[in-house]
Design brief:
The chain is α+β, with helices and mostly antiparallel strands. It has helices at about 10-65, 70-85, 135-150, 155-170, 170-175, 180-185, 190-195, 255-265; strands spanning about 90-95, 110, 120, 130, 200-205, 210-220, 225, 230, 235-240, 245, 250, 280.
Length: about 280
């Protein structure tokens, strides 16, 4: 009599059942795992920002005590020392001292980790430390969209002007980060002094589906249109003029055409050459 083989493998049906069960488990567990990982990274980013705030505050108070405190120059003069003291390798985008009684009190600080997580410290906010969108440009677009949607002005024109001014006058959103300033200096060939004068200004246009959309232009004043750099659809673009980086005018009236030009351009900062002129160039790192 033949002995029955008790070491048979899985049948095809059994394997399919196992695969289906594993697929269901992965569908349930993976999103939760990603959420947990993101939360852990965000917490670490806040810890880094807290260390930066502490280091900046200590140095500001020390400078104030020595009567050498100059708030307008404090960040540029002490950026490296603050980061070194905090023992972090991110970048400080913005630092403000706005308390009328305690002149050396850090009231606002914007910090970006090496992993590109953006943290805001704002003592006037209910949540003192907060995480901005991983793409700070996307966060700005979401903010101007909300400002425009929530505006209580009676006409479309005043509604947009109110939203645009509220955005431009809020440094949390209009101020350029260090990496964006680097684009102006290294890619657009502006001096550090001139680059520091730029802020983000939103432009409104209507897309092909009839929806209101926004893009951001870097300008030196709220009432100027010339820009060397824009943010559109998750990417940065600079204007290539006569064979080199230059400026061009973007307004609400021509923003739609500018978007069409951007979409049709195939040039990047890696492929552009000096023979190309009057086109938008996507910046690649």
């Amino acid at each position: 009599m033949k002995r029955e083989n008790r070491n048979k493998g899985f049948t095809l049906v059994e394997m399919i059942v196992v695969i289906v069960i594993l697929g269901i488990l992965l569908a349930i567990l993976v999103p939760g795992l990603f959420k947990y990982i993101k939360k852990a990274k965000d917490q670490q980013a806040i810890i880094e920002c807290r260390a930066v705030v502490t280091a900046a505050q200590a140095l500001a108070l020390e400078s104030y005590g020595k009567n050498i405190f100059e708030p307008e120059f404090f960040l540029n003069n002490n950026r490296s020392q603050i980061l070194s003291t905090a023992d972090v390798d991110g970048e400080i985008n913005l630092l403000r001292f706005e308390d009328t009684l305690n002149k050396a009190l850090v009231t606002y600080l914007s910090y970006t980790t090496k992993g590109k997580i953006n943290v805001i410290y704002d003592i006037s906010s209910a949540t003192v430390y907060s995480i901005l969108d991983d793409d700070i440009g996307k966060g700005r677009i979401e903010h101007i969209t909300k400002l425009y949607k929530d505006s209580s002005s009676s006409t479309s024109m005043t509604k947009w002007e109110d939203a645009k001014n509220a955005f431009y006058n809020n440094a949390q959103y209009s101020a350029l980060t260090q990496s964006e300033l680097a684009y102006l200096e290294n890619t657009c060939k502006l001096t550090s002094e001139n680059a520091a004068k730029y802020k983000w200004k939103p432009c409104k246009y209507i897309d092909s589906a009839g929806n209101v959309q926004f893009l951001l232009t870097a300008t030196q004043a709220s009432n100027t249109q010339n820009t060397p750099l824009i943010y559109y659809n998750g990417a940065y673009y600079y204007w290539q003029g006569y064979g080199k980086p230059h400026t061009t005018s973007i307004t609400d009236a021509n923003a739609e055409n500018a978007v069409k030009d951007i979409q049709s351009s195939t040039y990047t900062s890696d492929t552009i050459n000096s023979n190309v002129k009057d086109t938008w160039v996507r910046i690649v790192n």
